[in-house]
Design brief:
The structure holds 2 protein chains of 2 kinds.
Chain A: H1 8-11, H2 15-30, E1 38-42, E2 45-46, E3 50-51, H3 57-69, E4 73-77, H4 84-87, E5 96-101, E6 108-116, E7 118-123, E8 143-146, H5 156-163, E9 170-173, H6 182-192, E10 197-201, H7 202-211, E11 216-220, E12 234-240, H8 245-257, H9 259-268
Parallel strand pairs in A: 1-4, 8-9, 8-10
Antiparallel strand pairs in A: 2-3, 5-12, 6-12, 7-10, 7-11
Helix pairs in contact in A: 2-8, 3-9, 6-7
Chain B: E1 11-12, E2 26-32, E3 44-46, E4 49-53, E5 60-64, E6 72-76, H1 84-87, E7 98-100, E8 103-108, E9 112-117, E10 123-128, E11 143-145, E12 148-152, E13 163-168, E14 174-179, H2 184-187, H3 205-208, E15 226-229, E16 234-238, E17 259-263, E18 270-275, E19 291-297, E20 300-308, E21 313-318, E22 324-329, E23 336-340, E24 345-348, E25 360-363, E26 377-379, E27 384-390, E28 392-404, E29 407-418, E30 425-431, E31 436-443, E32 452-454, E33 458-462, E34 467-472, E35 478-483, E36 493-496, E37 502-508, H4 512-519, H5 533-536, E38 549-554
Parallel strand pairs in B: 1-32
Antiparallel strand pairs in B: 2-38, 3-4, 4-5, 5-6, 7-8, 8-9, 9-10, 11-12, 12-13, 13-14, 15-16, 16-17, 17-18, 19-20, 20-21, 21-22, 23-24, 25-28, 26-27, 27-30, 28-29, 30-31, 32-33, 33-34, 34-35, 36-37, 37-38
Chain lengths: ~280, ~550
């Protein structure tokens, strides 16, 4: 699965290239040039990724990156909705987006710094929690899933539900401009009992399940046999402009050298990962 | 009204400009709107004043045609919510205004309808019809029918539930609203609903042909054209594609999306419905124009409507009963092998059904359809329908990692390319009785402008390179052309000036879905931008630049 993505494991053999870049950068600083700001576009209210008070894990990683590059951090805030990349980095407002899937079409993506997957969210007190698309109760449960909207594409979990016949009681959550993030609303609906289960992307599932006043459980989605060719896991990287080779090299070098600290920041926000040993 | 008459013919009875003298046509005056986005609108002329509305921020101008150079009489700024720009699917376009009883009626992108005093430019009333934060916008031109103003919404891609709303002309109060999905009472289906086909009969089909609750965000918006037959007292309009679910997640016919309604204008009561694309798979909206004609079909004079659909067929439908009389392809079609007129349904080709995880090639017509919003014109003199349209096919693949609100998903890569012949646009003259193309002109880019037919047997249209062209209505021979400042995606009109001369007017200003690569500065290296349209328009920036202006022409 996902062998087409450059994974964390692959990072190691690229270390030499990264080291060379760092040397070049240091030389430019000793020449006394004023460091230009590291311009980042981010959502002001999208926990656990990014928040205006810079408490999101992407904000913390961005700060670490800026400090590492000895450049001041500068934010442009916009809700992460349709057209986010076009209206931000595409409009020249910033140079970097901290989290995008590897291979994101309009950007040059760095090496991946974590990989996650989708999770089933159920209440702990649920005697028959939904943990598989093969569950005989699948068709009768009220299940929340995020809708995509504009794209002729789909979410892999939404497609898995449809291919297994679950369309009757599936509830779609759209990312409208002013609403709370769909993941937050879905997890809340499970806690309140208006949904039986939800299918949520890992980082959001980890965060909102931990925040929930009602005890909830997380179960990693196992790819159904009939959809083995579909990706459910996604490797997440940083995105820069297609032609911004210099920043890409800086970012790749940073991701290799500061990996332990990045891992700790992800762990601090309960990001469930599939690229680490011993993870569920 | 933008389409000149309630039958939506776009035929001007003016005949000063003829096939013999059109070559002498020259600019009379021009006017810059100062807006650099797609100008899909139509100016209208009332007495000695021309009214035109620009794309977002939707400023309305009155130009004094009695003065040399047509100076601005007044300008009205509706000041729409800037947030509307972010939710509009395909550029921040506006398709025109309407006039009645001394007032101009206009829509704004942030889903408001306004009445403005035509003499003074002062606001008379304003009604908020939709919610931008839910993805609702308005881009269509309103239509005045009797004492009502008819307005529909845009935004099916965003999970907007489509509707057509009638406002009281005097006060702006909502008289009725007919939804495109949901229970019969919301769709205004009652005992008077008599659809022709069995598949459209039954209780609450706007709910039961969807997974439960999916209809609540089911699309079927009304962003195209409305026609009106005063004798039958029926309005006709199309509904957009279903949304926002992936097709596999919304099993069923998804009524009442991607079809046409006939309704009573006073009450909104539905009389019949015909669905072009039950369970639409290809973004084939049903919102294209319906031209109301009297045609002799198989020896019988019939009241019909002619509708060139996105799916590549020209439909001729009995407009009293809703019976399909013929449906003939006007472009290469691979998504279906014909229309079964006994059921009204297309005979779908399973090979071109998009299926996640598979590559589907040679899908024709592409998502913008054989023809999109750009309205045709009808000449009663030649009995031909002049159709601006495109010639595009597409390949679809999934598995591209995309991202929204912090959540990855499987994006689709849609690659559009020219259909047979290698040209992307066609301007053609269609005979709806013989069901064949009489002549056609190939254009490099999709012909995204409207058409205008005149009694001088001259037909006008614009190209995305910016050429405004006059052709012979009978032969299609190019008689005159003028290069405007930007690509043309507007609707040409003809009017009688205060000086008694015939004028031809059109707005230039590239944009819209097809022109977004220029008006929105999209990255042409990203073939999937603008839902795959950018890839097919990669060379447009080499042929035109953005900028909105009105051009008006007359004989010397």
């Amino acid at each position: 699965m996902c062998s087409r993505y450059p994974e964390i494991g692959v990072l190691r053999w690229r270390r030499i290239q990264g080291g060379a870049v760092v040397a070049g950068m240091l030389m430019s600083f000793t020449a006394g040039a004023a460091a230009p700001p590291l311009r980042i576009c981010a959502d002001p209210d999208n926990p656990p990724f990014s928040q205006r008070d810079q408490s999101g894990f992407e904000n913390r990683i961005a700060q670490l990156l800026a400090d590492d590059l000895k450049r001041p951090l500068q934010y442009t805030w916009l809700r992460d909705r349709r057209g986010f990349v076009r209206k931000t980095i595409g409009a020249g407002l910033c140079d970097l987006i901290v989290g995008v899937p590897v291979g994101f079409p309009t950007l040059r993506t760095s090496l991946a710094y974590y990989r996650s997957t989708y999770y089933f969210v159920n209440r702990r007190d649920d005697a028959t929690p939904l943990v598989s698309f093969e569950d005989p109760h699948l068709l009768h449960r009220r299940i929340g899933v995020q809708l995509i909207g504009i794209d002729p594409g789909t979410s892999p979990v939404g497609l898995a539900l449809a291919r297994h016949g679950a369309t009757e009681h599936v509830v779609g959550f759209t990312a409208a401009s002013d609403d709370r993030p769909p993941a937050e609303r879905m997890v809340q609906a499970v806690a309140e009992g208006t949904l039986d289960s939800a299918l949520v992307w890992g980082p959001q599932a980890g965060h909102f399940v931990q925040q929930s006043p009602v005890p909830l459980r997380l179960d990693r989605v196992q790819v159904p046999a009939d959809l083995a060719q579909l990706p459910f896991q996604f490797a997440i990287a940083m995105g820069v402009r297609q032609d911004d080779e210099a920043l890409l090299n800086d970012v790749n070098s940073f991701l290799i050298r500061r990996r332990t600290e990045i891992d700790a920041m992800l762990a601090a926000r309960s990001v469930p990962r599939t690229d680490l040993r011993g993870q569920p | 009204m933008a389409a000149r008459d309630h039958a939506s013919t776009r035929f001007s009875p003016l005949a000063e400009i003829t096939t013999d003298n059109v070559s002498k046509l020259r600019p009379a005056f021009t006017f810059s709107t100062g807006v650099a986005r797609g100008h899909e609108g139509a100016p209208i002329v009332i007495g000695g004043t021309m009214y035109l509305q620009a794309p977002y921020p939707n400023d309305l101008y009155a130009l004094d045609l009695t003065q040399a150079g047509a100076p601005v009489k007044w300008k009205f700024e509706p000041k729409p919510d800037p947030g509307a720009q972010g939710v509009a699917c395909c550029d921040v376009v506006n398709r025109g205004v309407a006039y009645a009883d001394g007032r101009i009626y206009m829509n704004t992108l942030d889903a408001q309808t306004l009445a403005v005093d035509a003499e003074t430019g002062r606001e008379v009333w304003r009604t908020k019809l939709g919610d931008v934060s839910k993805g609702e916008t308005i881009t269509m031109a309103p239509l005045v029918v009797k004492d009502k103003l008819l307005v529909g919404n845009s935004g099916a891609e965003m999970g907007v539930r489509g509707w057509l709303t009638a406002l009281d002309l005097k006060t702006g109060k909502i008289a009725w609203r007919a939804y495109a999905t949901g229970p019969d009472k919301d769709v205004l289906i009652g005992p008077g609903f008599k659809p022709f086909y069995e598949g459209d009969k039954g209780k609450d089909l706007g709910m039961t042909t969807w997974p439960p609750d999916a209809w609540k965000i089911g699309g079927g918006t009304v962003w195209g054209w409305i026609s009106y037959d005063a004798e039958l007292d029926l309005i006709y309009y199309g509904t957009a594609n279903p949304g926002p679910w992936n097709a596999e997640q919304r099993p069923g016919d998804n009524k009442w999306t991607a079809g046409i309604f006939a309704r009573r204008p006073d009450t909104g009561e539905a009389i019949w419905f015909y669905q072009y694309a039950p369970h639409d798979l290809h973004d084939y909206n049903g919102t294209n124009e319906n031209v109301l004609l009297e045609l002799v079909i198989e020896g019988r004079q019939r009241k019909v409507l002619v509708h060139p659909d996105r799916n590549g067929y020209v439909y001729v439908i009995d407009r009293a009963s809703g019976e399909g009389l013929s449906a003939t392809p006007f472009v290469k079609v691979t998504t279906s092998t014909g229309i079964d007129l006994r059921s009204g349904r297309p005979k779908l080709n399973p090979k071109t059904e998009p299926r996640t995880g598979e590559v589907v090639r040679d899908v024709c017509p592409a998502s913008p359809g054989g023809k999109d919003w750009q309205p045709s014109a009808w000449s009663p003199r030649t009995q031909l329908l002049y159709m601006p349209h495109q010639n595009l096919c597409q390949d679809m693949t999934t598995f591209q990692a995309s991202y929204i609100a912090g959540t990855p998903y499987l994006g689709a890569e849609v690659t559009m390319y020219p259909g047979p012949g290698g040209h992307r646009g066609v301007f053609g003259a269609w005979d709806p009785v013989k069901a064949r193309m009489v002549w056609s002109i190939k254009e490099r880019f999709p012909v995204w402008s409207g058409a205008l037919a005149t009694a001088g047997d001259v037909v006008f249209y614009g190209t995305m390179e910016g050429w405004f062209k006059a052709v012979d209505a009978r032969s299609g021979k190019l008689l005159w052309q003028h290069k405007t400042g930007s690509g043309i995606v507007g609707q040409p009109i003809s009017y009688l000036g205060p000086d008694g001369k015939q004028y031809i007017a059109v707005m230039s200003g590239v944009g819209g879905w097809a022109g977004a690569v220029v008006s929105k500065d999209l990255d042409t290296r990203d073939a999937s931008a603008a839902k795959g349209f950018a890839g097919a328009m990669r060379d447009l920036p080499q042929h035109t630049t953005k900028g909105g202006a009105l051009y008006v022409f007359s004989l010397p």
